[in-house]
Design brief:
Blueprint: H1 6-13, H2 27-45, E1 71-75, H3 82-93, E2 103-108, H4 113-119, E3 125-129
Parallel strand pairs: 1-2, 2-3
Length: 137
Amino acid sequence: ETEDSFIADLVVGLRTGEIKTGAPCRSERLAKYNQLLRIEEELSAAGRCSYAGEGFRTTGNLKRGMTRKPIVGGNWKSMNTVAYTKELLAAFAGCGADAAKADVVLFAPAMHIAHSLEAVAGSAINIGAQNVSKTAE
């Protein structure tokens, strides 16, 4: 990651309603969140937008033209066991995600996809695949 905050401008310009930057604990991520705050400040001063607050939890904002269902996604690193993965997913499935209000997708490492699908069967949780990277993480 870099401190280039263009992604914040892009998500606002495309009206995606979401951004993926990671937790706001490092400066390159904070730069993107700060840019979103600057954009909101500028547009709200002109009466063109406002921070959604808890309204982001609804299925779209017809007043502002956003009618998509929210997507909640997450991933985890591959350094765990099959048993731990099943335990983790059972905890998520037990939360009772409501597919009518949001799509929930958990992105599993490739080696955990098959048993992840089994672990969430019958719940509103979907399983996706993580990408592969050559980084040293």
